[in-house]
Design goal:
This protein has about 575 residues and is an alpha/beta fold. Among the domains are: about 230 residues, FAD/NAD(P)-binding domain (3-Layer(bba) Sandwich), CATH 3.50.50.60; about 100 residues, Glutaredoxin.
Length: about 575
């Protein structure tokens, strides 16, 4: 099969740790140099924390795998320094369409308002993102990437974690304060700890293939129920970079995965689907083929002492909705700032329990949405099928029915509204930015020129203050305590403190339901810790301390855990 992308090959290099007389110790070791593991390592490095990354391979992923990068993930990658590359190379889209047989039922816009730097989604093959993360890791200089280093043993302890590593030149040992297991759905780390997934494996199979072709389909997400080219089943079409298109075709549980992966079976299915869209030549090439069984499962807990599980090693979801890769990147975003605070001694180790408290419910939300989508796409009983078909018939003319159509509720960031780190509102707000949830972008004028609000928030605690006269005396003190201060005003004139931003369009004030004196305190991951209508320095400090786990949980951290 022809390729539009050539996988880089990274050399195995002997480490000085292999010549040490005893296992060398590192504060943080990451297992797995995939999308999530590399994101973790780069995020740590941007915060000045060194890590060792161990991977049993010597390249990035084969096949496009995760392709839909959500707005929240793009915002994270802006902070890590590769967001611009994703937008430049990838395919931007906000619009989706749903079809029944040969007719369109409705269309939906995932970002109807605009006024944000990032679109709803950028489609890009995962291998590009991984390669750019490797390059970024090398630029930052704090990531020790060790290719062809296979972890063969994990021994958790009360004060450290021991590892056995196999290389082309023999085995060696390591220890670390914290082990971050990002080694995927077949995680050895998970197996070594004797942990098992809880959840559901669906009795259905889907053919997933990347097709290289010149086609006249628009840059949209198209989903068919019972299409004429694939009767009684479903189909999905997405465009990627390099004229590569992702196509998913439902096969049914009785399909033979090996047989259905053969090009002689795949090509006729695609010809029936693509038809006139290929133009006169009618040519296409297959880049990657896989047959997928849907699974919606997770570990009961993601933290096990000094071992943390992220991404597919912690949870698995079906691909409809783009929740797998995005969920894993957001796992990393949640954990890394907390780990930095603990390693630097500015937060107690109990803060790390909040990783479970925030990311287990996030995984449950993704699993719930993925399960509902799978149940709608593949009804399990005649009654469910009758309901599904009735909803689809109504959706073309009845707007209320469109909300019941589920071809994959697309990935959104998790609002950790019940987070133990969030301070409850004491006043009324009408804003979709709520304690525990992520910040929302808006255009602003910065001291350097036109910019975006989210570029100004993080990677430390950030106070966003909607300016009023005479309330800035404490800003300099807060800045000295590690809180970045941003003041917003509609015009350039007037009192200010910290970094002054101009909200000339008024979008930031509207999206944050702000009036003069309103303040928002954001955590280092751009999630909201607290907000208020009147600036009170003591309230800001109390919210920061709560977000750091100071005075919230006991030494065992149980108050931050999950049941």
């Amino acid at each position: 099969m022809p390729k539009t992308y050539t996988n880089p090959v990274y050399p195995y290099l002997r480490s000085v740790d292999q010549d040490a007389g005893a296992p060398a110790h590192h504060p943080v070791i990451v297992v797995g140099a995939g999308l999530v593991g590399l994101t973790v390592a780069v995020d740590l490095a941007t915060r000045g924390i060194a890590s060792v990354v161990l991977d049993d391979n010597d390249t990035v992923s084969f096949g496009s795998r995760a392709i839909c990068f959500s707005k929240r993930t793009l915002e994270i990658y802006d902070r890590l320094g590769i967001g611009e590359r994703l937008r430049a190379k990838g395919i931007t889209w906000n619009l989706g369409k749903v079809f029944l047989r040969d007719r369109q039922l409705f269309a939906f816009d995932l970002l109807p308002e605009g006024g944000e730097e990032n679109p709803a989604f950028v489609n890009l093959q995962q291998y590009y993102v991984e390669e750019w993360l490797v390059e970024r890791a090398k630029e930052l200089g704090l990531v020790d990437l060790r290719w062809k280093n296979q972890v063969t043993g994990v021994s958790p302890g009360s004060d450290k974690v021991g590892l056995q590593v196999e290389t082309p030149e023999g085995a060696y040992g390591l220890t670390c304060d914290y082990l971050l297991a990002c080694d995927g759905a077949r995680s050895f780390s998970r197996e070594a700890l004797g942990l098992e997934f809880e959840g559901q494996v669906f009795q259905d199979r889907f053919l997933i293939t990347d097709v290289l072709m010149k086609a006249n389909f628009p840059t949209e997400r198209w989903f068919w129920f019972d299409p004429p080219f694939h009767p009684e089943q479903s189909a999905l079409l997405h465009r990627q970079a390099d004229d590569v298109w992702r196509i998913d075709l439902q096969l049914g549980w009785d399909a033979d995965p090996e047989a259905e992966s053969r090009p002689e079976r795949v090509v006729p299915r695609l010809k029936a689907m693509l038809g006139e869209a290929l133009g006169q030549d009618g040519d296409f090439d297959l880049e990657w083929i896989s047959v997928y069984t849907f699974q919606c499962r997770r570990l009961a807990r993601f933290r096990h002492g000094r071992v943390f599980f992220l991404g597919d090693s912690a949870h698995q979801v079906s691909p409809f909705g783009a929740r797998g890769g995005n969920g894993g990147v957001q796992d990393a975003d949640n954990l890394v700032w907390k780990l930095e605070a603990v390693l630097r001694g500015t937060a107690p180790e109990a803060l790390l329990e909040s990783y479970d408290a925030e990311r287990v419910p996030a995984a449950d939300e993704n699993i719930l949405n993925s399960t509902r989508a799978t149940d709608f796409i593949t009804p399990k009983s005649p009654v469910s099928r009758a309901f599904r078909d009735a909803v689809l018939e109504l959706a073309e003319t009845c707007p209320f029915a469109r909300g019941l159509v589920n071809s994959g509720r697309l990935s959104l960031p998790y609002d950790a509204l019940d987070s133990p780190l969030a301070s409850a509102d004491t006043e009324a707000f009408e804003s979709r930015v709520r304690p525990g949830g992520p910040a929302v972008d808006a255009p602003v004028e910065t001291p350097e020129g036109p910019g975006w609000l989210l570029r100004q928030i993080g990677p430390s605690f950030t106070l966003l203050y909607f300016a009023e006269a005479g309330a800035t005396a404490e800003f300099e003190t807060l800045s000295g305590e590690g809180v970045r201060v941003l003041t917003l005003a509609a015009e350039a004139e007037g009192d200010g403190g910290g970094t002054r931003l101009i909200d000339r369009a008024g979008l930031a004030a509207r999206r944050y339901d702000a009036r003069p004196g309103t303040w928002y305190l954001f955590r280092p991951d751009q999630h909201l810790a607290a907000r208020g209508r009147r600036f009170v320095p003591a309230a800001v400090r109390a919210a920061r301390d709560r977000a750091l786990g100071l005075g919230v949980a006991g030494a065992d951290g149980k108050a931050m855990g999950v049941a």
